[in-house]
């Protein structure tokens, strides 16, 4: 009977973002996306003498074809590859065990730091029916057990006499020729694929960037002004995809869904890059931005890092973060996966360019958690953001409590924000910013000093706030949402509006 082996890469984000070097993050992402499965699975099968060659894409091109049934001399076939997982189906258990050993050794040797877990299920039935669902549950149960109870050492042990790598805090074991510094083998393995990753990205989106634009692997080259050197890490994830996979009734159905999900991120990013190119092109609203050059090409202030189906992460110039996150969710919602649309959520961490990259990514993950919670209650697309102008420490809840909570009033943070509806929507947030910055619909433009005074007033006592509101009335200024009080229950919409003014291009406010 067939034996299913489900391979899972544990803590992908920790591996990719466990460094403050963008080049390492890029190299790590390339390894996960292109090498861990697509290169190392064939090598693992060959080393174990199971198959010298295997078609990695037959499951995509012929999802209903089960090769172990059709070709009796074949020992293995690919179930699917995608979403950080790979399913292989072997004819017998001995080959499955031999592959796991050879594959694990190859990953340890070539890509130290990557953690693997395996799920196994004997007598796997991949045809349509309840048996397939039952066997899938058994396979995932085996994976969870092995992931939770197996501790694998995936990095060389550190010795007390060896200094730490400045990029990864692992032991210095080799030298990086370009920087002429001693680094860990994990750092070396990731940096070694930066060029391949860069060329792959330019080729993938060549139609969108044309001959005019290119990408960079240096955060400092996003075109930030010297006095406002910020980047934004945007992390987005689709809603409800796990339930769609659970609902699949056969391997063929799972394959079709996996193939659709695999194309999704690229389609969405194509739209986002095209949108950004149009904005920076001649006569576009961002045409006057001074972008860095690479030869004669302008460097786009965005760098995709993870394009894993419905899981998308990119880094961009800080002032573009919230706007591009909003567009990203819009494109994710309008791009179907196998003719069905999804909603999605995003977290945006806006930090100084020199801010520790991994901490910024963790902040983006925490923010998407808040957005997901709101989405589960309302079943649509939400985003949340945080701007760090001076640096934060602790969890997101601790940051909000310590930095954005006014005693006796509530929280200054009004998010998360729904992309397309209600008072808690991005539309309401942006309309308030427009009325502050430009004035519209019977609202006067606010002087810059009065906007700052409002921000200060939000942290003051009741008497001062009453005095401030009376002063506004005397000057003929109205709060941008037409209300006559600064707080609505335990929240206020104005702090977010004011804070985002410096991190949202005025030319993109509609």
Briefly summarize what is shown.
By secondary structure, this protein is an alpha+beta fold.
What does this structure look like?
By secondary structure, this protein is α+β, with helices and mostly antiparallel strands. It has helices at residues 12-17, 22-35, 40-47, 58-61, 67-70, 93-110, 130-149, 185-191, 194-204, 206-209, 241-246, 251-280, 321-334, 357-378, 396-403, 426-437, 448-457, 462-475, 494-500; strands at 3-10, 76-82, 85-90, 115-122, 174-176, 181-183, 213-214, 230-238, 293-294, 297-299, 302-308, 311-317, 344-352, 382-387, 405-406, 410-411, 417-418. The protein has a six-stranded mixed β-sheet. Helix 2 crosses helix 8. It is globular and about 85 Å long.
Q: What attributes does this structure have?
A:
alpha+beta, globular, six-stranded mixed sheet, 510 residues, 17 strands
Mean pLDDT: 89
Proportion of strand residues: 15-25%
* Integer-rounded radius of gyration: 25 Å
According to DSSP, the number of beta strands is: 17
Q: What kind of oligomer do you see?
A: single chain
Low-confidence stretches: none
Largest sheet: 6 strands, mixed
> How are the strands ordered across the major sheet?
11-12-8-13-14-17
Structural class: alpha+beta
Please give the alpha-carbon distance between the first and last residues: 61 Å
Could you estimate the helical fraction of the residues in percent? 40-55%
Question: Which outline best applies?
Answer: globular
Total DSSP helices: 19
């Amino acid at each position: 009977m067939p034996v299913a082996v489900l391979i899972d890469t544990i803590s992908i984000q920790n591996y990719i973002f466990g460094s403050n070097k963008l080049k390492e993050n890029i190299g790590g992402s390339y390894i996960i996306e292109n090498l861990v499965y697509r290169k190392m699975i064939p090598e693992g099968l060959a080393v174990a003498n199971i198959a010298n060659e295997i078609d990695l894409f037959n499951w995509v091109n012929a999802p209903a074809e089960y090769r172990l049934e059709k070709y009796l001399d074949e020992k293995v076939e690919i179930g699917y590859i995608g979403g950080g997982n790979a399913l292989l189906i072997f004819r017998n258990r001995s080959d499955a065990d031999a592959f796991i050993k050879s594959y694990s050794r190859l990953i340890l040797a070539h890509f130290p730091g990557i953690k693997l877990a395996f799920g196994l299920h004997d007598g796997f039935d991949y045809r349509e029916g309840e048996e397939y669902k039952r066997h899938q549950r058994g396979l995932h149960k085996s994976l969870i057990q092995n992931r939770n109870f197996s501790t694998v050492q995936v990095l060389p042990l550190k010795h007390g006499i060896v200094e730490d790598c400045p990029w990864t805090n692992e032991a210095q074991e080799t030298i990086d020729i370009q920087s002429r510094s001693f680094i860990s083998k994990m750092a070396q393995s990731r940096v070694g694929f930066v060029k391949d990753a860069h060329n792959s990205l330019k080729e993938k989106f060549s139609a969108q960037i044309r001959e005019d634009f290119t990408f960079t692997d240096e955060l400092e080259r996003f075109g930030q002004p010297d006095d406002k050197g910020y980047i934004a890490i945007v992390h987005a994830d689709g809603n409800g995809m796990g339930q769609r996979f659970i609902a699949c009734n056969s391997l063929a159905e799972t394959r079709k869904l996996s193939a659709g999900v695999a194309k999704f991120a690229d389609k969405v990013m194509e739209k986002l890059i095209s949108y950004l190119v149009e904005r920076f092109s001649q006569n576009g609203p961002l045409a006057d931005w001074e972008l860095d050059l690479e030869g004669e090409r302008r460097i786009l202030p965005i760098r995709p890092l993870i394009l894993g189906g419905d899981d998308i992460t990119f880094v961009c110039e800080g002032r573009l973060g919230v706007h591009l996150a909003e567009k990203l969710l819009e494109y994710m919602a309008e791009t179907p996966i196998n003719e069905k649309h999804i909603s999605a959520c995003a977290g945006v961490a806006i930090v100084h360019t020199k801010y520790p990259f991994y901490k910024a990514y963790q902040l983006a993950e925490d923010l998407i958690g808040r957005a997901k919670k709101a989405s589960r209650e309302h079943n649509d697309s939400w985003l949340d953001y945080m701007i760090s102008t001076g640096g934060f420490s602790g969890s997101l809840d601790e940051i909000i409590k310590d930095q954005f909570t006014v005693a006796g009033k509530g929280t200054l943070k009004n998010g998360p924000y729904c992309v397309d509806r209600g008072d808690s929507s991005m539309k309401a947030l942006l309309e308030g910013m427009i009325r502050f910055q430009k004035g519209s619909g019977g609202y006067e433009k606010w002087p810059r000093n009065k906007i700052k005074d409002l921000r200060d007033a939000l942290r003051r006592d009741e008497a001062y706030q009453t005095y401030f509101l009376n002063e506004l009335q005397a000057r003929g200024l109205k709060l941008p949402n037409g209300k006559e009080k600064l707080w609505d229950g335990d929240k206020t919409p104005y702090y977010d509006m004011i804070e985002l003014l410096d991190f949202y291009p005025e030319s993109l406010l509609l």
